[in-house]
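Thread: Newbie trying to understand structure tokens

Hi all, I'm a second-year student working on a class project, and my supervisor (Dr. K.) asked me to get a predicted structure for one chain before our next meeting. I've only ever worked with sequences, so writing a 3D structure as a token string is new to me. If someone could post the tokens and maybe explain what I'm looking at, I'd be very grateful. Here's the chain:
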Amino acid sequence: MTYLEDYVRNELRTFDQLPYNAIDAMAFSVLSYTNLPNNIPEFDSQKYLSTVPIYELLRAEDYNTMFSHGSEEESRLHLLLLLAQSPRYRGLRIGEYIQRFDHETEQQFAAMTFDLSNCIGVGEQGLICICYRGTDNTLVGWKEDFNMTYRYPVPSQVDAYEYAKSIVSKQTEDGKNPRAVICGHSKGGNMAYYAAMELLKHANDKVEDNNVFESLKQHIAVWYTKIRNQYTEKMPFEQRLVKVYSFDGPGFDESVLNTEEYHRMEEYAEKFVPQDSIIGLLYYPGKYRIIRADANGILQHLCENWIIEQSDFIYCDQLSKSAITMNEALNSFMLGLSQEERKKLVDEEYEVLRAGGYETFTDLINNWQVALPKIREASKHRDPQVTKFLSEMMSAISLAVVKGFSFTNILGK
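---
Reply by user tm_fold:
Sure, no problem. This is what the structure looks like when written as tokens:
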């Protein structure tokens, strides 16, 4: 069987021989979990995209901090090495890095931009990929995910739009307005959808003042064209948007799925979920395609386990019975609560986990003998049915971060 690493290692065709596709976007989405080092340009308000060649990441002294999210560090390092070595991605550049982590607003957000314009076969116009990091192994990161059940938009969604709006307004250093792909895995997929929706919604907000231009034309005719181009987009965003990819990203409230901007965004969108999807079916998932994965349960959430054949996924006709059952149970439970009740539920269970004294699932699990008594004490007075339900959800989440651990043994029966 073939997986993501195999694709990046063996797919040596250039982009004129094999156009940009979902597997390319998935590779960047996985790499977005990397904590980029200080030599990578940070996101700013400059006119031009600020990026460096992908090989600038190949600094062994930075690896300990770069690959610190969850249990997949080694495979992500391998992925980086393969990308840097491949003739398909050899001209790849990376930059415009931003990450925000805020306990007070309950936000975990990161984004980066990949510029493929110098890759062979991409085309004269160029191509960028705006990529959002999914949920990391922090409690705050998962709390923001569950906040989506009662709050719209959450802080990361707002920042995702502001980031994309700034990036698509920039040019490459040679003056190009490149085509754009927007993507992300897990929560990053939801951010990609939201950013694209808002970009399309506000695509025509910029209006020319023709009277000003006529005055300029009369008084400085020689410079008219040059000045006009400074104040107008050379190409509408809709014509530059290529695709929006969500890899097992959670959906939205039903009211969002019925909006005009969501329907416009769907024309560009592709969402993929594995057979045993849990995260990608949260809330109202919208349209999606089902992927075969070489794992069970929540471990299918990891893109590294998705099976690839040549340059595409292997698709399935339907979800697994366990995914359908879990999705129905979750929706039935959550939709039976008001938004105020959902907030109370999510806040209470978050405080139970924080009572353990650690801020990441990895630390919580590695120090379970210290954390366990505190968590049990904090959960004593919770509704047993609610505690049981959420302990099952947290067990699934923790498996995606630290394989083989179950919160059911901590929080409930």
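A couple of things are worth pointing out once you decode it. The first strand starts at residue 51 and ends at 53. Residues 207-217, 221-233, 404-413 have pLDDT under 50 and may be disordered. Feel free to ask follow-ups in this thread.
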